[in-house]
Amino acid sequence: MFLGRFAHALDAKGRLAVPARFREALAEGVVLTRGIDRCLSLYPMAAWRPLAEKVSALPITDPDARNFRRMVFAEATDLDLDGQGRILVPPELRRYAGLEREALVVGMDTAIEIWSPERWQAVEEVMEADGAEIAQRLASLI
Amino acid sequence: MFLGRFAHALDAKGRLAVPARFREALAEGVVLTRGIDRCLSLYPMAAWRPLAEKVSALPITDPDARNFRRMVFAEATDLDLDGQGRILVPPELRRYAGLEREALVVGMDTAIEIWSPERWQAVEEVMEADGAEIAQRLASLI
DNA sequence: CCACTTGTCCCCACTTTTCCCCACCGTTGT
DNA sequence: ACAACGGTGGGGAAAAGTGGGGACAAGTGG
């Protein structure tokens, strides 16, 4: 269970420290991939497998499904934490998420998201302004 | 589990280095063949067998099935990696996929695809433009 | 049947990148 | 105040990618 938001630095090599309290759940390996809304998603291996299997099962006869699979798997990377509990974020993913010197590591219960501070702030502002409305609209889904 | 996208050079002899992290899963031999959408597909032998059996089982009475079968098997090659972990891409397949100096080796979970950079970019552009819609449409299949 | 040409494969060497390890520093909690 | 833990930074060893030379085998023509 991942909770909380942590500001960590990306060093010159593109490494990012995972909060110590998350590490135990990630010891079996992780998959880092593009998230929606220009953030990155980090899945523990156990959570990634069922997701990957669903995508793999999409009909190969459907051109859109083929391309969708390509985007999901081509941009994903399987990693292990290094001895210091860090992950290496590939340059392509760094660019996608707009990460430079600083990054926010955000617990999302079953997975982890990684945000550039600027983009995160934009999300926060939206929620601050329209949070009540948004919650109301989602009421039917819960 | 094959993940990620790697740019590697085809040398003058038509050899292509397979990313080191993929090699272990390919040690038992591989089959290289035409993929859909003008890329090449590289299957570990263990994944190829059931696929070949499915294609073989297609009804011989159907003209499309006959042609599909020819396309799959006639251009397929079974290979082993050389000492450096490379495969030799036959000229005919190189031409089919439009490969020249550079190639992208793309993990697709259960298999590997090989793309010319130009064609891959075209796929990326489609997904950038319509990715959100496509994802939404496919959501119903997942 | 033999010589020659062509293409394949194996091996070695070089360059670049990756990753592993160690050391430092700040913060937290005792 | 001190110890321990978590985060940050960098140097060096090992591996990966690339290129080319030479041996071998197969196919072709005389």
TrEMBL record, chains A, B:
<feature type="domain" description="SpoVT-AbrB">
    <location>
        <begin position="5"/>
        <end position="47"/>
    </location>
</feature>
<keyword id="KW-0132">Cell division</keyword>
<comment type="subunit">
    <text>Forms oligomers.</text>
</comment>
<dbReference type="InterPro" id="IPR007159">
    <property type="entry name" value="SpoVT-AbrB_dom"/>
</dbReference>
<dbReference type="InterPro" id="IPR003444">
    <property type="entry name" value="MraZ"/>
</dbReference>
<keyword id="KW-0963">Cytoplasm</keyword>
<dbReference type="GO" id="GO:0009295">
    <property type="term" value="C:nucleoid"/>
</dbReference>
<dbReference type="Pfam" id="PF02381">
    <property type="entry name" value="MraZ"/>
</dbReference>
<keyword id="KW-0677">Repeat</keyword>
<dbReference type="GO" id="GO:2000143">
    <property type="term" value="P:negative regulation of DNA-templated transcription initiation"/>
</dbReference>
<dbReference type="InterPro" id="IPR035642">
    <property type="entry name" value="MraZ_N"/>
</dbReference>
<dbReference type="GO" id="GO:0003700">
    <property type="term" value="F:DNA-binding transcription factor activity"/>
</dbReference>
<dbReference type="InterPro" id="IPR020603">
    <property type="entry name" value="MraZ_dom"/>
</dbReference>
<dbReference type="GO" id="GO:0005737">
    <property type="term" value="C:cytoplasm"/>
</dbReference>
<keyword id="KW-0238">DNA-binding</keyword>
<comment type="similarity">
    <text>Belongs to the MraZ family.</text>
</comment>
<feature type="domain" description="SpoVT-AbrB">
    <location>
        <begin position="76"/>
        <end position="119"/>
    </location>
</feature>
<keyword id="KW-0131">Cell cycle</keyword>
<keyword id="KW-0805">Transcription regulation</keyword>
<dbReference type="InterPro" id="IPR035644">
    <property type="entry name" value="MraZ_C"/>
</dbReference>
<keyword id="KW-0804">Transcription</keyword>
<dbReference type="GO" id="GO:0000976">
    <property type="term" value="F:transcription cis-regulatory region binding"/>
</dbReference>
<dbReference type="InterPro" id="IPR038619">
    <property type="entry name" value="MraZ_sf"/>
</dbReference>
<dbReference type="GO" id="GO:0051301">
    <property type="term" value="P:cell division"/>
</dbReference>
<protein>
    <recommendedName>
        <fullName>Transcriptional regulator MraZ</fullName>
    </recommendedName>
</protein>
<dbReference type="InterPro" id="IPR037914">
    <property type="entry name" value="SpoVT-AbrB_sf"/>
</dbReference>
